[in-house]
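Risk mitigation, structural track. In case the binding assays with adenosine-5'-triphosphate fail to produce interpretable data, a predicted complex structure has been prepared as a fallback.
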Amino acid sequence: MRLEWRQVSKRYAEKTAVDDLSLDVAEGELLVLIGPSGCGKTTSLKMINRLVEPSEGTVMVGDKDVSLVPVTELRRHIGYVIQQVGLFPHMSVADNIAAVPRLLKWDKARIEARIEELLDLVGLPPGEYADAWPARLSGGEAQRVGVARALAADPPVLLMDEPFGAVDPLTREVLQREFLRIQSTLGKTVVFVTHDLDEAIRLGDRIAVMNEGRLVAAAPPGELLMDADPFIRNFTGEDRALRRLARLSVGDALGQAVPITAVGGDGDSAPVGSIRTDSTLKEALSLMLEAGESSINAVNPAGRPIGKLTLADLLESAAGTEAS
Ligand SMILES: Nc1ncnc2c1ncn2[C@@H]1O[C@H](COP(=O)(O)OP(=O)(O)OP(=O)(O)O)[C@@H](O)[C@H]1O
Ligand SMILES: [Mg+2]
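Fallback model:
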C-alpha cells in the first residue's frame, strides 16, 4: 500500500513543525526519515495515522485521503512502533500481541496461532515468552514484542518512530538485522524514523532528510552519500565514504549480489582470516587493516571459500556509484 504526503504542513501557534512536505513511499518500500531533533519527523509520521491532523495538504494511504477514513478503520491498516514501546504493563506478552486481533474479534484459536507465529518471527521462543510480563523483558526483548504487536493484524503499513533508539548499539544491530530479515519476507510499506545515520543507511531503500520542517533531500543511501548539497554533506559527515562501504556487501564487490545480513561480533562470523560474503565492505576493510594484509579470503554464509577480496576490488566497488 503506497503512502503520500501532498503539500502537507503542520503549524502550531509558535512553530511550523512541518512545512509543505511532498513525498511518497512506494508499496513495499522502506523509507527512512532522518534529521536533527525537532525537524518534524514524528509530526510527519503521526499525520499518516492521524495522531496529528495536518493544517494544510493531504495525506494519502493507498488511494484514500486519510482525513476521509474513520480513524479506527485507518489504524487497522497501520502498525505503529515507538521508542518507549508502550507495552501494556499489566498484560502478558501474549495479551499485548493479541490486543488488536481481539479488537477485530478474531477467534481464539486464530489468535493463539498468530501469537506463536509472531513470537517465532521476532526470535522469542513462545514457550518462554508468551506468559512473561513486560517488566521482566530486556530492552531488546521489549522492542521485539513491540514489533510483534504492530504486526499482529498483518497491516500493510508500518510506522516506526525510533524503534531501536533506546537499546545498546550491539542489540540495535541485532534488531536491525532481524528487522531486515522480517521485512525481506513481509515486504511492508514502512516509514522508519531515526536519528542514527548508520541505521538509516543500513535499513533504508530511500532516506528522506528533513531540516526545520522541510524536506531537504530524498534519495537511496548510495546517492545521498554522494550528494553535493552543503547541508547533506555536513549531515553525512567526513566519513561518508566509509559509510558507503557499510552499504555494500563483500559479495557485491566479488560480483555476486549478496544482501548484507552478517553483523560483526555476534558469533556466526567466518573463520579467522576470512570474511563472509554477506558482511559489509567496511568490515572487510577493517579486517584487512587489522591484519595488515591487502586481501582477505571470502567465504559464503555456509563457510565455503569462494575467492579472495582484494583492496583493489574494494576500492573499485567504493568508487563505482552504486545504484542503492
Ligand atoms: N503539540 C505541539 N505543540 C506545539 N509544538 C509542537 C507540538 N508537537 C510538536 N511540536 C514542535 O514541532 C517541532 C517538530 O516536532 P517533532 O516531534 O515532529 O520533531 P522530531 O523531528 O520528531 O524531533 P526528535 O528527533 O527530537 O524526536 C518541534 O519544534 C516541536 O517542539
Ligand atoms: Mg520525534
